[in-house]
Specification:
three-stranded mixed beta sheet; 10 helices; elongated; about 10% strand; single chain; mainly alpha; Diaminopimelate Epimerase, Chain A, domain 1; about 240 residues; 2 domains
Length: about 240
């Protein structure tokens, strides 16, 4: 017969096993609204590559998806945040009824500036709020054009490549088609681009995949897949 302490331990182990069995399983992480970091995970990139292959099975457009953490450094935004902190600090010391040592006020102001710069540079959500949306979009568009050349998307035989540039910090998506893509099709891309950008803004990866899949039916009427089409560009997210 088991001693009392041993029986108690056995019963506790059984209870723990029962609770573990009853605990509901967590849903797969890719089924949830994803954070910015998870857009960069290997499993997410593999799923995006599968969607790209499905799109290219319908059209001769060669789609390349690239995901970047940020399209720019936005140093001016951080410096501006530091300047605001410095001005506020100086104004408080100057206007406050409390007496501050004039000799240390410049040092305090400089310290406030440094702390403000570090704060804005470290907190991406704050830096995003302080950066004008027009500047974020302009940086993303410029970075997308650079990535288009960097990734060699113009090297397809029919010049039918298209870059899907995902800028996570900027919360936007830029589409850069090659010159072989008809203008009528470029205009038809805008609703798809808007849906992609909205999914990135909400960091919703499932919505991103759904919007990406829309490129197939959008491209097919004007650039259907041909029997001699070759996969000239990498399908993997870069």
């Amino acid at each position: 017969m088991n001693p009392p302490k041993t029986r108690l331990r056995v019963e506790m182990d059984r209870a723990g096993s029962f609770l573990s069995a009853r605990k509901p399983r967590e849903p797969p992480i890719l089924g949830r609204t994803l954070s910015e970091r998870q857009f960069l995970e290997t499993a997410a990139k593999q799923r995006a590559a599968e969607v790209v292959r499905a799109v290219e099975a319908q059209t001769s457009v060669e789609v390349v998806v690239t995901v970047r953490r940020a399209a720019g450094r936005y140093v001016a935004t951080s410096l501006g945040g530091g300047l605001v902190c410095a001005v506020v600090c100086f104004a408080v010391m100057w206007l406050s009824p409390q007496v501050y040592d004039v000799r240390t006020m410049p040092l305090d102001t400089a310290l406030a500036f440094v702390l403000g710069v570090v704060l804005v540079a470290s907190v991406s959500s704050l830096r995003r709020v302080l950066t004008p949306a027009s500047l974020r979009v302009a940086r993303a568009e410029r970075a997308a054009r650079s990535a288009f050349a960097e990734l060699g998307i113009e090297k397809t035989r029919a010049r039918s490549g298209m870059l899907v540039y995902v800028a996570l910090f900027e919360r936007t998506v830029v589409l850069v088609p090659d010159r072989g893509v008809p203008e009528a099709l470029v205009a038809a891309f805008e609703p798809v681009r808007a849906a992609l950008a909205e999914s990135v803004r909400r960091t919703d990866f499932e919505a991103f995949l759904a919007a990406l899949a829309r490129l197939g039916p959008t491209c097919q009427p004007l650039l259907p897949r041909q029997s001699d089409d070759e996969n000239e560009l990498c399908d993997n997210v870069v």
